[in-house]
Amino acid sequence: MIVELTVENLAVIERATLALGPGFTVLTGETGAGKSLLVDALELALGGRADSDLVRSGSGRAAVSAVFDLSSRPDLVRLCEELGYPAEDGCLYIQRDVLAEGRSTARIGGRLAPISVLRRIGRELVDLHGQHDHQSLLDPEAHGALLDAFAGEPASQALAEVRGAWEAAEALRRKLAAVRQSQRDRDRRADMLRFQIGEIEAVAPKPGEMEELTARFERLRHAERLREAVARALDLMTEGEAPARDQLGEAL
Q: What is the DSSP string of 38-86?
């Protein structure tokens, strides 16, 4: 049961706190009084879509906090514990902040929580119905949830056990898929290594061949420069007014 709802800087609401007692509560008022805003605030607290347009003009953030009494919902107490957000003294404290730039944060029991966890808990906390919600009766996925809710605690316990078994099976499936992927990666690596070994064996390198090829490469790399040097030397030997060849002959 919801015990308290506090809204700050949401649309036209600067600050409002709604304390709810046991039993049936009706909110009345003329059009524009803010009734739907309170429903929007509750939906936001339970993981609804956060929109910066919800932030009151001139404010940096909007905030909604809600307190729920879980004393009559042992199944929900267990769910919160399983998700890592246990109730405090039988109550669950939820807060949702929306910044003017569009980012939002959620806290459960004062601790940051993923929106997916907030929505998971929110589905068990509150049923929100609109004028077109009767159409959900045509959704086959909704039928199972209705039967589970009608069956009560025994079905909830069995459902939790089945859900736990399914999650364990899914974890094993993911682990098996990871192992198979790892095996495929190893097979591809082995194929590549075999190919590289084949290429090396086809070359059939000999001891010292690398050094020899390196030296040959260096000679070829400088071949043009060596050719030019030889050409200049030949010119000096044979050309000019006093070629080196003639001077050498005279010296001998």
A: HHHHHHHHTTPPP-GGGBPTT-SEEEEEEEEE-TT-HHHHHHHHHTT--
The C-alpha atoms of residue 86 and residue 93 are separated, in whole angstroms, by 10
Place of tokens 């690398």: 210
Token representation of residue 13: 């609401």
Residue 68 to residues 32, 82, 99, 148, 152, Cα–Cα distance (Å): 27, 18, 24, 22, 20
pLDDT at 177: 93
Q: Which residues of the chain fall short of a pLDDT of 50?
A: none
Mapping DSSP to helix (H, G, I), strand (E, B) and coil, where does residue 24 land?
A: coil
pTM value > 0.85? no
Angle at 34 between CA 33 and CA 35, to 5 degrees: 105
Residue 211 to residues 197, 205, 214, 224, Cα–Cα distance (Å): 21, 11, 5, 22
CA distance 174 to 117: 21
